[in-house]
């Protein structure tokens, strides 16, 4: 048997059930994420514990990145009696507008230990570069 130490957690769970805040495809819940630049890549990490890779959908249309995932209930035998269920089930989604400086053609996605990590390279056109200055051979002096 499990001991509950946070009395408000049960109230939060009941409010979520009554308000229907678990995610559906028409109204998905938001998934937590971190975003940062690492060298020549932009990295976005989404927390998706308990989600199978087959239930993750990643789309890019123009500069809009959409990530959807579904956490389905685990099949239980008839003899199993659930005493506590706090892990949210349903659909999770996040949409992010990507800058034009990112190369959306070369996005890499990895899923490990419940974290979906997207690595988006910085586009060549956005990287710093030196511009050479032409010589002074064509200069004319104006006298007046």
What attributes characterize this protein structure?
four-stranded antiparallel beta sheet, 144 residues, mainly beta
Gist?
With 144 residues, the protein is mainly beta. It has one helix and eight strands.
Summarize the structure in words:
The chain is mainly β. Helix content is 9%, strand content 34%. It has one helix at 7-19, and strands spanning 29-30, 33-38, 41-47, 56-61, 64-71, 90-97, 108-112, 115-121. A 4-stranded mixed beta sheet has the order 1-6-5-4, with no helix packed on it. The chain has a 4-stranded antiparallel beta sheet with strand order 2-3-8-7, with no helix packed on it. A hairpin with a 2-residue loop joins strand 4 and strand 5. It starts with 6 loop residues before the first helix and ends in a 23-residue tail after the last strand.
Give a topology summary.
Layout: H1 7-19, E1 29-30, E2 33-38, E3 41-47, E4 56-61, E5 64-71, E6 90-97, E7 108-112, E8 115-121
Helix fraction by DSSP (H/I, runs of at least 4): under 10%
Structural class comes to: mainly beta
- Return Rg in Å: 25 Å
Number of distinct beta strands: 8
Uncertain stretches: none
């Amino acid at each position: 048997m499990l001991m509950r130490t946070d009395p408000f957690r049960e109230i939060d769970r009941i409010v979520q059930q009554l308000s229907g805040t678990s995610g559906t495809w028409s109204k998905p819940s938001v998934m937590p994420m971190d975003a940062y630049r690492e060298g020549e890549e932009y990295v976005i990490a989404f927390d998706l514990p308990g989600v199978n890779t087959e239930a993750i959908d990643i789309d890019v249309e123009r500069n809009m990145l959409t990530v959807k995932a579904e956490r389905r209930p685990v099949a239980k035998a008839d003899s199993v009696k659930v005493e506590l269920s706090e892990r949210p089930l349903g659909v999770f989604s996040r949409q992010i507008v990507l800058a034009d400086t990112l190369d959306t053609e070369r996005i890499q996605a990895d899923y490990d230990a419940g974290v979906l990590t997207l690595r988006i390279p910085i586009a060549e056109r956005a990287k710093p570069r030196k511009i050479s200055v032409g010589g002074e051979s064509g200069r004319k002096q104006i006298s007046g």
